Amino acid sequence: MQPGQDAPQPSVIRRSAHLLRLLAAREPEGATTTQLATAAAIPRPTAHRLLSALQDEGLVERDNATGAWHLGPECFLLGAAATTRHDITPAARAAVLRIARETGESAFFSIRRGDETVCVLREDGSFPIRSHVLHEGIRFPLGVASAGLTILAFLPEPRREAYLARTDLVGAYGEQHSASALRKRVAATRERGFAVNPGLLVVGSWGLGAAVFDAHGQPYGALSITGIEARLAPPRQAELGRLLLEAAHTLSTSSATGSTPGRARS
């Protein structure tokens, strides 16, 4: 870009894709035009114009009673067509189910997409008190929540440092997510083997996460559990961490010998 030139504006496709991702993270409640425009940092008329165009293609639909937008039927059809290439392996589903049954906590499988993690599987355990911080479709930046922290911790150091240099999480998530604070938690995660989120998103809601690696030794996903502090704090924490690490190792081994679901973008 030459001096004096305006910065290039995001393309219509990029803005539309961003709106679809924002909607996916807000299902099943959906979101209003104003909420989506604010989250996407675009003018409300622009958001409405893009959403209306997506509605014409069946990619979103609007609840006339509430005014909330939702993902449309065409998204389901596209997702179904993509499962032949990006399906979550039966092993991942089995791992999440087993963890939930054996621990009684809510268990999750998340995958890395660029600088974010996306929760793609959830299974609730038998313990009656549950956290609703994570649900299928929700996205967090790397370093946020136990899944994002464990993936960040096991990225190659140059890639991890480049991410920390270009990313500011303090405004949205507080000082506990500054680069220096994250570096300390990354070091503890690498030493421990699994990540611990001691209620940094919601007070009292803890999370543990273990990275899942692809055939090249890169973290592409994470298994995690959430629960109240009394159930995830030491000494039970070590037992739960070992269970997560064993399940993550099994998934990593299957990835090394077969296809990797949801391969991340670098």
Automatic annotation (TrEMBL):
Domain of life: Bacteria
Keywords of the record: DNA-binding, Transcription, Transcription regulation
Keyword Transcription regulation: yes
Parts forming coiled coils: none
Pfam families for the chain: HTH_IclR, IclR_C
InterPro entries: GAF-like_dom_sf, HTH_MetabolicPath_Reg, Tscrpt_reg_IclR_C, Tscrpt_reg_IclR_N, WH-like_DNA-bd_sf, WH_DNA-bd_sf
Domain HTH iclR-type, chain residue ranges per copy: 10-73
The keyword RNA-binding appears for this protein: no
Gene3D superfamilies: 3.30.450.40, Winged helix-like DNA-binding domain superfamily/Winged helix DNA-binding domain
GO biological process: negative regulation of DNA-templated transcription
Ranges where the IclR-ED domain occurs: 74-257
SUPFAM superfamilies in alphabetical order: GAF domain-like, Winged helix' DNA-binding domain
A single MF term (Gene Ontology): DNA-binding transcription factor activity
Protein name (database record): DNA-binding IclR family transcriptional regulator
Organism the protein comes from: Nocardioides panzhihuensis
Lineage of origin: Bacteria, Bacillati, Actinomycetota, Actinomycetes, Propionibacteriales
